[in-house]
Amino acid sequence: MVIDIAAQYRGKNNGDLCAPLSLMRKRGWTSSDQLNKAKKELVEKDVIRVSRKGGLNKCNLYALTWFPIDECGGKLDIASTTTAPGRWKI
Known about the structure:
This is Bacteriophage lambda Replication protein O N-terminal domain-containing protein. This protein is 24% helix and 10% strand. By secondary structure, the chain is of the alpha+beta class. The longest helix is centred in the middle third of the chain and has 13 residues, at 32-44.
C-alpha cells in the first residue's frame, strides 16, 4: 500500500496523494475492506498522514511522513512543513 501511494509523489505534491479504490484497482487492489485496513494501519504507524479529510465528492488525501508536506494549492487541512514530520517505526 505505501508503495502504491508513494508512486504518486512527484517531488512537490506530498499531501496531495490519494488512495480511493477506483485508483487503487489499477495497482491490483480489489477489496475496499483490505484497502481501508491497510490505510488505517499506515496512519496508525505514522507512515502516512491524512492531509485532508474526505467528504462529499472528495477523497481523503495523504502525505508521506518521510518527506516535508507541500503546500498543494491550499487544498490541505494541515499546514505545509519544511522538514519531514514522521516519527514512524516499523
